[in-house]
Specification:
By secondary structure, the chain is α/β, with parallel strands linked by helices. The protein has helices spanning 2-14, 19-25, 27-64, 105-112, 121-129, 146-152, 157-164, 202-212, 242-251, 261-265, 277-290, and strands at residues 70-76, 79-87, 92-97, 135-138, 169-172, 186-195, 215-222, 231-234, 256-259, 271-275. The chain has three domains: 2-56; 66-183, no CATH class; 185-292, Alpha-Beta Plaits, CATH 3.30.70. 45% of the residues lie in helices and 21% in strands. Helix 6 (146-152) packs antiparallel against helix 7 (157-164).
């Protein structure tokens, strides 16, 4: 009798009286559906955010890239290796190996160590190739293939991104001055050159360099100011001139830069370069070495 009572009590105690009711109203299934819907919403939201981040990153990366044609000289121990022309619109890189050119390398080494060229090596290369280079990069590799160039430009992000683009064609080209003329002409920034030193040929030489680099030189003249340092005057409203201003600030330490719309308009230009003794002394030294 006692055993039967215990069995009945035990059975009643372990019977889940609430289970039929829960299964009947379907609450667990509804909960699972709601959770699945919320998971789907979070998934869609996460994917949308990732897409926005990716689009933003690509837009930022595009802004870090090259905006216009760039002329770059590769050097090894100050000796020229190659001239590169980055053609942005054409998605093309022209590579001109200059190691076999008949350059007076002993004279180049001499001028690079002279006091007159101190902190002005970039200008020496401009005179040597009659081209205004946007950058001079140290290059230790022997090969000029794409992988070697990518490694050399790994710290130069705009050039690196351009080279990394698989749509960009890398093509070898024998070097001539005509190669550097392939860039877009900067007609929006007409340049006037004023030789203040009386050194014959100074303005003509720099006019050729700027014209070979796609700048429009509309005037060459001289005066008797005999400036010790070159002065650059430009119209700040002319955005097209900013690239040339930045370039001269980089390649000629000590250059005096002045914003004056009135002064450049006297020459009917947007930018006026008053050539001083710093450029004249370097020019005379260069001519004496390379044209003796």
């Amino acid at each position: 009798m006692d055993d039967e009572v215990l069995k009945d009590y035990s059975a009643k105690k372990t019977t889940p009286a609430f289970r039929p009711q829960v299964e009947k109203n379907g609450s667990p299934r509804l909960f699972r559906v709601l959770m699945s819907w919320r998971s789907l919403q979070w998934l869609v939201l996460s994917a949308s955010l990732l897409a926005l981040v990716w689009v933003g990153f690509r837009a930022w990366e595009d802004r870090q890239g090259l905006l216009h044609t760039q002329r770059v000289l590769l050097v090894n121990e100050q000796q020229p290796v190659a001239v590169l022309l980055f053609q942005v619109e054409q998605k093309q890189l022209l590579v001109s190996d200059v190691r076999q050119l008949n350059l007076d390398r002993a004279a180049l080494e001499q001028i690079m160590t002279a006091s007159v060229a101190a902190e002005r090596n970039h200008l020496v290369y401009n005179l040597l190739f009659a081209t205004n280079f946007d950058a001079v990069i140290d290059y230790g590799a022997n090969s000029l293939d794409r992988e070697s160039l990518l490694q050399a430009f790994s710290q130069q992000r705009p050039y690196y991104l351009f080279l990394k683009n698989p749509d960009v064609l890398v093509r070898e080209q024998a070097f001539t001055t005509a190669v550097t003329l392939l860039g877009e002409q900067v007609f929006a920034c007409p340049v006037a050159l004023i030789n203040t030193t009386g050194e014959v040929g100074l303005a003509t030489t720099w006019a050729e360099i700027l014209q070979n680099s796609s700048f429009s030189v509309i005037k060459k003249t001289d005066n008797q100011d005999n400036l010790s340092h070159t002065r650059l005057v430009y119209d700040p409203a002319m955005e097209a001139c900013q690239g040339l201003v930045d370039r001269w600030r980089q390649i000629l330490p000590g250059i005096e830069i002045v914003e004056s719309q009135e002064q450049v308009q006297e020459h009917r230009a947007a930018l006026a370069l008053y050539l001083g003794r710093d450029l004249a002394d370097l020019y005379v030294f260069f001519v004496d070495l390379f044209h003796r």
